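User: Sequence for Phosphoglycerate mutase below. C-alpha cells please.
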Amino acid sequence: MSDVPALPVPRLVLWRHGRTEWNAAGRFQGQLDPPLDEVGRRQARRAAPHLAAPLPEGTLVVSSDLGRAAETAVALTDVLGVPLRLDPRLREVDMGSWEGLTRQEVAERHPEQYADWLAGRPITGRGGEDSADVPARALAALRDLPEAPAAVVVTHGGTSARLIEALLGLGPEHRRVFGPLANCAWSELAEQSGRWRLLRHNTSAPDLPDGPVPPPQPGTRRPDAGASPEEGAPRHTQDADAL
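Assistant: C-alpha cells for Phosphoglycerate mutase:
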C-alpha cells in the first residue's frame, strides 16, 4: 500500500463528464475532444443541483480542460456561483492509436493489444500514456489547489478510476476493483484519521435525462449505466471513455 496522498482539501467529489456521441457509440475518446451531446448536456444540468446541495461554502470546482468536462463543470459552477478552474493534468488517459476507434475496430486492427487489455495486462505498441503516470499528474493538480473545505474534480472515466485507486492506496493488482463512473455520476472521498475513505461511489441524479428511472428488472442494467471499457467486458459497449 502506498503513502496516503496529502492534499489541501479534506473532501473530494470526483464527477465524470456527461455523455458524448462517442460515448453512445462505444468509441475511445482519450485526449481527443468530442463535445457533449444533448443527452450529456441534460445530464449535467440535472445532476448539478443534486451534487451542489450538500457541498460546504467555499467548495472549489476544478476540471479537465477538455470541452466535455469543462462544459459539464459549468453546469455546477452556475449553481454554486463560483469560478471554474481548468487544469490539463486532469485530462483523460492518452490512449495513443486507439483514440477515435470503436471497440470492434480496436479488436480487428490490434487483436493482441485488445487481448492484453481485456485480460488487464499492460498494453504494448499502442503509444499514448502509461496508466501509472495518470494518478501522478492528477494528484499534482490537486496538490496545487488552495486550501478549501472541499473540491469537485470534473474529469473522465479512466482518470477518476486511477485517482480513486491512488487515494485509497491500491496498487496495480487492484485495478478494476471499483466499477467505472457512469456519465455524469460521481464518487466522494474524505480524509479521515490520516487516510482517505470512499464514502460513496457512482452516485447519480435520481432520474434519467429523458424521464424517471423505471423499476429495475432482474438481469438488466440501468440504461444510463454508461459502462466503461475499463471493465473489459465486450458486452458493455455504451461507453469507451476510459483505459
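The beta strands are 11-16, 60-63, 84-86, 151-155, 186-192, 195-203.
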